């Protein structure tokens, strides 16, 4: 078998066919040709240069979104649905190219990257279908004298800010409902992962959306650029997915203008396993909840809360599964886990793992690092299972965003619920039990926007994804997702009998 370090990389071929600038209505490059490099976390190599836009460039992008907004808003829902259906088809036609870019910029395996393309495309199809669903309602006023009509109108030009961990799916989860609702948008991807968004924006144009309907702005200076766009009166909505810290900053900008926001922020998901759980199911689902995207998911299980009677067997079985992962570049044969996104992510995971160990946790099992030639170049971190993690360990309060499975044991149901809710976050919780009554009772007590019962995966295009507490505001996906891009107008109209 070829050594991992000798494998040819996908990068030059894929990046060679990308436009290096960003895609707007009338222009391709930012003012002075400034660029920044995109790094492959598997090798540490810079694989592409993309446009580094400044706030003035972003205003030009907003101009493009505003210029086309009146005509895009007036298109029929059927027309917008047809454009989105073509986007969906093109995403499948270009699946391998898109997946290759995701692997290149994020590091995840090609299998996971292909899964992301499918998941991302599904949002486009879902909102192509939602575009033509009737919105609004009509009723007779209680006094019988007039009609109450509610009409759902597009909110107007939007700013869409996405994170690096699921770059394509987070872009479609925002852009598809925005376009379906009749909004135009400026998309600002993470500086770590702009390549798949560049390819997506090109694909939207190729599918027949007018230039400016979706304009892409890439930059290393997200703060000043977004602040300037958000201060412009013409912008009507910001949709953000990312950390709670940046979400707070954006909410303060939005407050100044009473700007509508959707905030999909960080998580700290508890994964609760009761003594009566089916051990095999719990372990299988724990692997999914922990290892999807290498632990770099907002819905990744961050804290395993396991009841005393099953904890030892659960820890051993999970340890065997995580220790078996083979690490390496995401496009290499036989690799089950790619690198983390960058060295900062490795440093954070190392700090949180070591802090837990220093506070008395035990190391159950750890995977092997890749061969030294590979490990020394990329941002690799070996999956690890820790048991007896005390509730005061830093990992119980911080999102680790890495394959560290931290198990804390509990005795009673009340204790489990108290531990699970002891966080400022409230995105998702998972619970495992074969007792239906307990499942219902605990679900009602858990403070999170989503709950997985005997399931470690909750994401679905048809479901309203989102959090409570400091995990965010608003929902993405499902019929709810399009309402984030609509505003209601209530019309008092003459009654049919007056
Ligand atoms: P991040 O907050 O650092 O960055 C997210 C985006 O915001 C990037 O595009 C970045 O360039 C931009 N940004 C950074 N500073 C900004 C500023 N001052 N003004 C405007 N934009 C700014 O997050 P990240 O590291 O890219 O992503 C990881 C985080 O995202 C985790 O906390 C994760 O839980 C969260 N996340 C949440 C969801 C969800 O649906 N709730 C989904 C995926 C990721």
Distinctive features:
7-stranded mixed β-sheet, 498 residues, 6-stranded mixed β-sheet, binds nicotinamide-adenine-dinucleotide, 2 domains, globular, Aldehyde Dehydrogenase, Chain A, domain 1, alpha/beta, single chain, Aldehyde Dehydrogenase, Chain A, domain 2
Describe the structure.
It is a single chain. This protein has 498 residues and is of the alpha/beta class. The chain folds into 2 domains: 12-265 and 473-488, Aldehyde Dehydrogenase, Chain A, domain 1, CATH 3.40.605.10; 269-460, Aldehyde Dehydrogenase, Chain A, domain 2 (3-Layer(aba) Sandwich), CATH 3.40.309. Helix content is 41%, strand content 20%. It has 16 helices and 20 strands. The protein has helices spanning 11-16, 55-74, 77-93, 95-106, 110-131, 167-181, 195-206, 222-231, 244-257, 279-291, 308-323, 343-358, 372-375, 413-421, 436-445, 478-483; strands at residues 35-40, 45-51, 137-140, 146-154, 158-161, 185-188, 214-216, 237-241, 260-264, 269-273, 301-307, 362-366, 384-387, 404-410, 425-426, 428-432, 450-453, 468-469, 472-473, 486-494. The strands form 5 sheets. Strands 12-13-14-11-10-16-17 form a 7-stranded mixed β-sheet, sandwiched between helices. Strands 7-6-5-8-9-19 form a 6-stranded mixed β-sheet, with helices on both faces. Helix 10 links the parallel strand 10 (269-273) and strand 11. The protein is globular, with a radius of gyration of 23 Å. Residues 1-28 have low confidence and may be disordered. It binds nicotinamide-adenine-dinucleotide. Nicotinamide-adenine-dinucleotide binds next to helix 8 and helix 9.
